[in-house]
């Protein structure tokens, strides 16, 4: 729309609507030339290119997330294996501890009986 055409339109709007409504309506008109089909096609082409790039980036992001999830799954498996190994070590430790405790108690009882027998033998010998 040319400057002259805008002036004519504004004058006519002022006659019909009045000054304030005409100014309001004119403010909604584009400042430069209105959109054309070729201009819209150009914008659509640029938007299509940008959307394609965005989709490619999103595809790469999804692939990275899939690799990350697979890595986390491997780590989770390793943690489960470590937990199992620690459980086995703990069970073995407790079994060994029980065995050693029995051995210490048996050795202590044997020493007490031996010492008691020696004490009785010395007591009998001194009589």
Sequence stretches where pLDDT stays below 50 over 5 or more residues? none
Q: What is the helix/strand order?
A: HHH
Q: What structural category arises from helix and sheet content? A: mainly alpha
Number of helices: 3
Major beta-sheet overview: none
Give the beta-strand count: 0
Strand content: under 5%
Q: Give the domain tally.
A: 2
Ends distance:
140 Å
Gross morphology: rod-shaped
- Radius of gyration of CA atoms, rounded to a whole number: 48 Å
Mean of residue pLDDT values: 92
Q: What percent of the residues sit in helical stretches (DSSP H or I)?
A: over 70%
Question: Keywords for this structure?
Answer:
mainly alpha, rod-shaped, single chain, 3 helices
Give an account of the 3D structure.
The protein is mainly α and 127 residues long. It has two domains: 1-34; 35-126. It is built from three helices and no strands. The protein has helices at residues 3-17, 19-27, 37-126. α1 packs across α2. The longest helix is centred in the middle third of the chain and has 90 residues, at 37-126.
Topology:
Layout: H1 3-17, H2 19-27, H3 37-126
Helix pairs in contact: 1-2
Brief write-up:
By secondary structure, this protein is mainly α.
């Amino acid at each position: 729309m040319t400057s002259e055409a805008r002036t004519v339109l504004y004058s006519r709007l002022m006659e019909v609507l009045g000054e304030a409504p005409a100014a309001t309506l004119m403010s909604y008109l584009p400042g430069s030339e209105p959109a054309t089909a070729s201009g819209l096609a150009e914008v659509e082409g640029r938007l299509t290119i940008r959307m394609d790039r965005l989709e490619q980036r999103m595809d790469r992001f999804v692939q990275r997330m899939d690799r990350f999830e697979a890595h986390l799954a491997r780590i989770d498996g390793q943690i489960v294996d470590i937990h199992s190994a620690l459980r086995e070590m703990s069970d073995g430790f407790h079994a060994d501890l029980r065995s050693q405790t029995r051995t210490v108690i048996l050795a202590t009882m044997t020493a007490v009986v031996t010492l008691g027998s020696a004490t009785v033998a010395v007591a009998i010998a001194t009589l």
